[in-house]
């Protein structure tokens, strides 16, 4: 394992062999000073990058805050307009509520029919692309349109 090649080239290396000298106090070698200087430089760069990242995150938070405020203002404006429309057309609002109730029961029946069809044709739908596409063609557009109409009536009659 120790002889396996590494996937990266080391930036620096440290010599850990013991040196004996005739003097009793060891002096740091020039290599050690270079390593210390390099580590200090790398640490400073790391700190600078972290500070830059903090500044960018603060800017991102400000942008997100502005987008959220804009979105809230737009939603409030839309709700105000819908409420004004409802006040201007009370008879239509009542009609939309009644239509929504009726279509909700139609939707329940439609979903039950769809679920029954899936249960009856389960094997066919899994094995035959034609049967699956036919199923989607029969039920998909009707469901999409019905859901769209119910959504509009819900907003208007809400």
Write a brief caption for the model.
This protein is 79% helix and 0% strand.
Write up this protein:
- This protein is an all-alpha fold and 158 residues long.
- It has 2 domains: 28-88; 90-158.
- It is 79% helix and 0% strand.
- It has 4 helices and no strands.
- The chain has helices spanning 30-88, 90-120, 122-127, 129-157.
- The radius of gyration is 36 Å and the shape is elongated.
- The mean pLDDT is 85.
Question: Secondary structure elements and their pairing?
Answer:
Blueprint: H1 30-88, H2 90-120, H3 122-127, H4 129-157
Please state the structural category.
mainly alpha
Instruction: Please tally the β strands and state the result.
Output: 0
Multimeric organization: single chain
What are the secondary-structure elements, in order, as H or E?
A: HHHH
Total DSSP helices: 4
Low-confidence stretches: none
Helix content: over 70%
The share of residues in extended strands comes to under 5%
> In one word, what is the shape?
elongated
Q: Give the tally of structural domains.
A: 2
Q: What profile does the largest beta sheet have?
A: none
Rg, nearest Å: 36 Å
Cα end-to-end separation = 71 Å
Task: Look at the structure and give the mean pLDDT.
Answer: 85
